[in-house]
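Q: Give me the 3D complex with iron/sulfur cluster.
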Amino acid sequence: MIVEIKINYEKCIRCKECIKVCSYGVLEWLDDMPVVVNPKSCALCLECEKNCPVNAITHEEK
Ligand code: SF4
Ligand code: SF4
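A: Here is the predicted complex, encoded as structure tokens.
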């Protein structure tokens, strides 16, 4: 299964929570925003989704 991690930058309030909770190095803070840098490392733990206060992150099956 291939999963696409989507970040809605219009919703994102730049709180860095998703960066803090991802233990797999999938997300990095770049240019003052969270960026998906290693999508293949995603373990689908959904911690980033669950901890985003504005529901800006979603995972979609391709
Ligand atoms: S689902 Fe888990 S492993 Fe994947 S980006 Fe979110 S926190 Fe990281
Ligand atoms: S947790 Fe949500 S609001 Fe906070 S930086 Fe990540 S995507 Fe943006």
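A quick observation: Residues 3 and 61 are 5 Å apart (CA to CA).
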